[in-house]
Amino acid sequence: MRAQLNKFGLIVVSIAMGFMLSLTYSAIADKSTDKDAKSQPQLPLDELRTFAEVFGKIKTDYVEPVDDKKLITEAIKGMVSGLDPHSDYLDADGFKDLQAGTQGEFGGLGIEVGMEDGFVKVVSPIEDTPAYKAGIKSGDLIIKLDDTAVKGLTLSDAVKMMRGKPDTPITLTILRKGEPKPLVITLKRAAIKTQSVKYKLVEPGYAYVRITQFQEHTGEDLAKALQTLRDQNKEPFKGLILDLRNNPGGLLNAAVGVVAAFIPKGDLVVYTEGRTEDAKMNLTANPENYVRGSADYLRNASPELKTVPMAVIVNGGSASASEIVAGALQDQKRAVIMGTQSFGKGSVQTILPMNNGTAIKLTTARYFTPNGRSIQAKGIVPDITVEDATLSSSDSSGLNLREADLSNHLSNPKDASANTPATPVKTPDAATPAPVDKDKAPADKTSDKAPPEPGSKSDYQFNQALNLLKGAQILQRK
Q1: Confidence grade of residue 442 (pLDDT, cut at 50, 70, 90)
Q2: Basic and acidic residues: which segments have biased composition (predicted)?
Q3: Is 331 a catalytic residue?
């Protein structure tokens, strides 16, 4: 009798699930355009039957009882994360953490990460964070968090493990190109308050601005920084360097605000294309495209910012919003782009809150530069390539990670070669990492050489950008 009731319960669950899916499907169909409606596919009944059958088998045959909520949640996670490397399902805590991160304050290690072959791959360490100071590099593959293997975890689960109370330690086991065995790096979490805009007057007439991340107040902070530099200089600028190296991106409106500081009002910054009307945008250098609920922070900006000679520095850690800025300034012939090819993340993620306090981070559009270039899986190619001369060959090999190297990455619609799946970066023993013998575990290790201070005399790329601006000033005088 009990077995019969169990079967009946599963049937009820399956019917209810099918009913909910039908309602959801109908709602989605209602949002479709007329063109899409004509070719709208039928509900995949065979696949839904298979889903219900798998659900039932797990409920009856799995070695331990599993809660219905857990099964449904894990199914949603898999459905969303399987789309591309940047879509994800956020539980209530993950949603709150994301909101805190865009406001410039959160607890954790300070790294922008993605998934590759089931492991966590570092896109870029954020400056002045525990990860940056410990020598974590772009392209590092994290295979263990403390004693927990990363293989099998979702990206949100791994991020949740890396975050925690300040001053609590965590040990990362990392595979790095050029290293014969895994690196074991122990570092402490911190209450991270990232300063998104840093600046200084390099020498009379030459300003340096570094943007580490695009946050809620980045545009306002940039406007204040430029005014402070102008007051310090007490005369028109001769040149300005905008440093976007290892900037993992952030808020789209903040990127538009940064570009708007340097190009004429009304000029195109970026446009997006997606399936819904909300995903199709033309964002120009107008206040309504970068100001959120306050006065235009660029209203009193000096007119000279629209004409001052500029050099923008990018590298393989420059992604998403930083590529929007570099691409717009490049297409508008407003700045010379220097450094190395950028990451190539040309997709837009929209945070869609759910009714239960969770959210999905869903890829909803591709973005294009003013000249119609798609950065997706390609990146920004500098006008002048300047390698970082301070890195050894073994160090630089870890910096070659690109969007095109990520499994299941979104294709580039403008580039036929980018539509071909890229060969994943081969990392030693990445597929089946050798177990670490606790008695013979590698010693804790950080980078062999601390990275040079950005904008310092030891920063080769920065000095080349400064030399370029000085050369342009000399030619202009002649």
Answers
A1: very low
A2: 436-451
A3: yes
